[in-house]
Amino acid sequence: MKKPQLLMGPLALALLGMAFCLWSAFGNDINFCVTAGCSLYQDFSLGGVSLWWLGTTAFAGLFLLALVGASAWGVVFSALALAGDALLLLLMVFTAPCISCLTVAVFFALSYWAFRRAYADEERRGPQRPSILLLLWLALFLVNVGVAVRSQNDVWPINELAPNEEGYIAPSVRMFFSPSCPSCRKGVEILSGKVDVGFYPVTEGPEDLIKILAMRKHLDEGASMAEAMTQAQKATRDDVSLWTPDAVWLRFRLLRNKAHIFLAGSRTIPFFEYHGLPAMLTRESRRPQPQPSPSAAPGAATEQSRQTPPPGSWDGTGAEPAFLNDNPIAGQCGGGRPCP
After folding, report:
1. What one-character DSSP code corresponds to residue 198?
2. Is 296 helix (H, G, I), strand (E, B) or coil?
3. Angle at the Cα of 185 (from 179 to 186), degrees rounded to 5?
């Protein structure tokens, strides 16, 4: 009877996986997980048991099987653990990826691969056939990695944002615009320097890239957004270089901004996003309403309360510009015609 041998590879992997799960279960002090899925799955449980404790138990079982040299049972048990992990990866594809969970997934996959190799060596078999389970897991893993990477490529504002403890102050209003869109130019002129708004450029045609490069140049020279937009309309190909490393990187940023609009379900600009309740709306709610004079006719109060400033006007009190409400369609290139 052959004496069982210690399986060092699976043993080390199971020990590392168990240590990582314990570290996460008790709350680690190093926040290397930067995706939304980390917060989502940190307290996730099955049957009242945390995923981290389930992972710890699974790796403990793999550790014991490697300790006694049970390669055949190790293949079966690690395959079951990998199948369960594949289901979690599938769930993360439709919700949000978790970097910590992906780290544990790597330990499960390596443990399965190590047990299969140990079993093949023990049985003196030839080259192993590819594992369908491992290939399925790999496909789901790569999709999650791609989603995690994409989630870190945030949209890019052309106007510099004020710094804070986290690096910058996120604007309460985001405006996505194109320099060639008439309504976009109108919006930039109205909102520039007057409300907490971030301006995110996109391109509708080849000339937009030239104008956006020119806008960056004027902004670096101290111009306001409205001034930079006006001056950039005169820019030509001779004024900027389109193939410098900075211009190539700008193309990627602009493509990311446009993809953000499409992912939000819109195809038109200007496109607005509100994060929280914008300060301009709270100021509007605190503005005193005009009171009719006692001698006014009965219908005068109603008429006075319905009076609004002309479209595009700004009274300096912090009220929301009429531009944001003059059309129910959030995106137009003059009149009610959506931008292409």
Report:
1. E
2. coil
3. 165
Q: How many C-beta atoms surround the C-beta of residue 328 within 10 A?
A: 6
Which tokens sit at 30?
Answer: 């190093």
Given a contact cutoff of 8 angstroms between Cβ atoms, the answer to whether 193 and 226 are in contact is yes
For 220-259, the pLDDT digits (tens) are 888 888 889 988 888 888 777 878 888 888 888 888 888 8
State the CATH class of domain 155-288+312-340: alpha beta
Whether the CA torsion 327, 328, 330, 335 is positive or negative: it is negative
pTM for the whole structure? 0.63
Which residues have C-beta within 8 Å of that of residue 239, sequence separation ≥ 6?
Answer: 210, 214
Q: Where are the domains of the chain?
A: 8-152, 155-288+312-340
**Which residue from 159, 219, 209 is spatially nearest to 180, judged by alpha carbons?**
209
Nearest-10 crossing angle of helices 8-25, 51-67? 160
**Do you find a cis peptide bond into 290, omega within 30 degrees of 0?**
no
DSSP 80-105: HHHHHHHHHHHHHHHS---HHHHHHH
- The H or E element containing residue 305 is helix 300-305
Tens digit of each residue's pLDDT (9 = 90 or more) over 75-117 = 999 999 999 999 999 999 888 888 889 999 999 999 999 999 9
Token pair listed for 50: 């945390």
Classify domain 8-152 by CATH architecture.
Answer: Up-down Bundle (1.20)
Q: What are phi and psi of 159, to 5 degrees?
A: -90, 140
In the block, residue with structure tokens 């140049």: 217
